[in-house]
Amino acid sequence: MAAPPEIEARVLELRATIEHHNRAYHELDAPEVPDADYDALVRELRGLEAQFPELATPDSPTQAVGGAVSTAFATVVHRLPLLSLDNAFEPAELTAWGTRLLRSVGDDQIHFACEPKIDGFAISLTYEAGKLVQAATRGDGRQGEDVTAQIATIDAVPDRLAVDDPPALVEVRGEVYMALSAFERLNARQLDVGLRPYVNPRNSAAGSVRQKDPAVTASRELGLWTYQLGFTEGAPPFRSHRETLDWLAAAGLPVNPEIEVVDSLEAVQHKVEAIQRRRHGFDYEIDGVVVKVDDLRQRAELGFTSRAPRWAIAFKFPPEERTTKLLDILVSVGRTGRATPFAVLEPVFVGGVTVVKATLHNQDQVRAKDVRPGDTVIVRRAGDVIPEVVGPVLAERPKRTKAWTFPAACPVCGEPLERVEGEADTFCRNAACPARTAGAIEHFGSRGAMDIEGFGEQRIQEFASLGLLRDPGDIYSLDWERIGQLEGFGEISIRNLQAAIEASKSRPLDRLLVGLNIRHLGPTGAQALAKAFGDLDAIMAATAEELAAADGIGPTIARSVRAWMDEPEHLAVIEKLRAAGVDFGRVAVPTAPQHLVGQTIVVTGTLERFSREGAEEAITARGGKSPGSVSKKTTAVVVGEAPGAAKVTKATDLGVPVLDEAAFVQLLETGELPA
Ligand code: IVH
Predict the structure, then answer these.
(1) Shared-domain flag, residues 215 and 276
(2) Which residues line ligand 1 (CB under 6 A)?
(3) Which is it for strands 426-428 and 338-350: parallel, antiparallel or unpaired?
(4) Which of 74, 374, 405, 499: CA 20 to 30 A from 40?
(5) Residue-number span of the structural domain to which 640 is assigned
(6) pLDDT, position 310
């Protein structure tokens, strides 16, 4: 069937767009769209080319690997091309791939290496007789750029291999990355000098490598993970991928400790899920899991297509970045009076939720990012982190937009806003500003404080606007008859809210203290005061010196608490709470016994009585640590159903005790390793 003209036009359009993005990404290190949007374009083009094969020409970007070679650096011809990887976006695609491989290799089993897919910058390192002689970028896969001087500045890149009898030549492939902590430091410096922050660690890593001046690269705190051998001469006769990785590690090259070889497709799925669950615990970004056939003989049998090996696939995590329209920038005023700008967005599904607004933090952040109403912006939501506007897509900025300016007056009460010299935040100083009082009431009822279920922002606003609620003390004497006449308040919802309010009267003292919204007093300080004084009246009667004498209370908190207690309007709130029968003297029982302090317990596999997070929490709540990998320092390894084979092997090798679930429970309860 010949392709209809509109399909042909769409294919041409897709190619032009993809090529444009390829240039932006590979040559300019300045991508304009999130990866997920790019992947969607490529997928659409592949789909159309598969449906109408006559449209699949060799010059299509679907046939190419990466971008062109820039002219700023000397060209390096790779001895073996640096190929790309095929992608899987659904677990089913991964299983389908594995099943296909099982059918094409003669054997009835394949071992798979599962590796975090590092979101960095691909690099090829050449060592001759153990000495680093060249570092090259991927470029278009056949030719890259010579960045030896730049790469040599990275601490993690050894100048010499730590092996006795180094091969004549080895080419090592890996990913240069910027750790999240380093990225934050870099962006803090950018903001300090009034420059636009970098969009993400990957572009910063790429930009840092492709610097003419190696001194700039050196200042960027880059890291490296190696994961593959390229061309070799005189290298040991490796039989498996695991052997090559172990050799790389022994030679002093960094190999990611998460890499694990498993023996079934089921175990691959488990490992993928495990890495995905923990991805935000790493200090570097990963965007998926690369699954590779471990046995090198099987690899040779499977071979390559023109752009990718058949023996590997990249499972890509769902996107955490998307583009959407920035409809407006508004300012909200919180309980402390802080005025925070936030983005009003066209709803966008990202990081597993639909995002409609995102904080822009403060005036300087808006200025640095220069986002403007009407812009198309990149929105990011990673893990449980609050959604963030990364920056504008400048190519799509409408004509005649103006930089956004911070309002001069509080949008809620109209009083002037004030920015303190030398600070980033702007404040409404009007203590009676309805936004501030509503914020304080909401905070009082919030989860970390008095935990009044069903008492959210909207209801509080509504009650406050009717004059039913002026401070937290009013919560306990609400006019229920009046509320019963409001729309949306049936008998049941009233009864539920009343019960939630009643229940809040017996919260522990530290939560009550948190709820009072005293500057500088957080949950830890509140616990310290509750423990030292036992009830609210004793705290109110104490001088600043007496408060500061409590364990864990410094002079700043002490002074702030004293000042708060001296305000007549605050005393009025406290008397309302007392009259309502709120418990002033309930001191929470201390948390779990701290008998795992100094111990490191690694959990692997599925446990019956704990989720993975639950087990880790049980360890940390008792003062212990629970990292993802086994080392000499590990106290014990807890092994559940389908454990990571590498962890168990390593534990046995290092003589680290291996515990089953029952022994783990005993350890939690007693702090002692079972005999
Ligand atoms: S193996 C022939 N392993 O992802 C196999 N690549 O989308 C080549 N990447 O070009 C790659 N982590 O830059 C491999 N553990 C890993 C990786 C990894 C990140 C990058 C690499 C590659 C790209 C493909």
Answers:
(1) yes
(2) 83-85, 115, 117-118, 122, 175, 227-228, 290, 309, 312, 314
(3) antiparallel
(4) 374
(5) 601-670
(6) 97
The pTM score is 0.59
Cβ(596)–Cβ(624) under 8 Å? yes
500 plus 360 within the same structural domain: no
Mutate to test the pocket of ligand 1, among 175, 202, 292 (most ligand atoms within 8 A of CB): 175
Asked whether the beta carbons of 629 and 666 are under 8 A apart, the reply is no
pLDDT value at 66 more than 60: no
CA distances from 498 to 350, 469, 476, 495, 544 (A): 36, 15, 9, 5, 37
Report the pLDDT value the prediction gives residue 244, as an integer from 0 to 100: 98
Nearest residue CA, atom 12 of ligand 1? 117
Active site residue 632: no
Question: Please, what's the largest Cα pairwise distance for the chain?
Answer: 88
Quick check: 585 and 535 in contact, CB under 8 A?
yes
Considering the domain architecture, whether residues 297 and 340 belong to the same structural domain is answered as: no
Catalytic residue (one of 117, 271, 292, 369): 117
Based on the domain organization, do 372 and 508 belong to the same domain? Answer: no
Q: Report the 10 Å Cβ neighbour count for 541.
A: 11
pLDDT digits (tens, 9 = 90+) for 246-261: 999 999 999 999 999 9
Residue to substitute in 118, 119, 253, 294 for testing ligand 1 pocket (most ligand atoms within 8 angstroms of CB): 118
pLDDT digits (tens, 9 = 90+) for 492-537: 999 999 999 999 999 999 999 999 999 889 887 898 899 899 999 9
Query: Greater confidence, 343 or 569?
Result: 343
533 C-alpha to center of ligand 1: Å? 58
Atom of ligand 1 nearest to the CA of 121: 13
pLDDT in tens, 123-154: 999 999 999 999 999 998 999 999 999 999 99
The per-residue pLDDT for 331 is 96
Both 14 and 95 in one domain: the answer is no
Question: Does residue 675 belong to any structural domain of this protein?
Answer: no
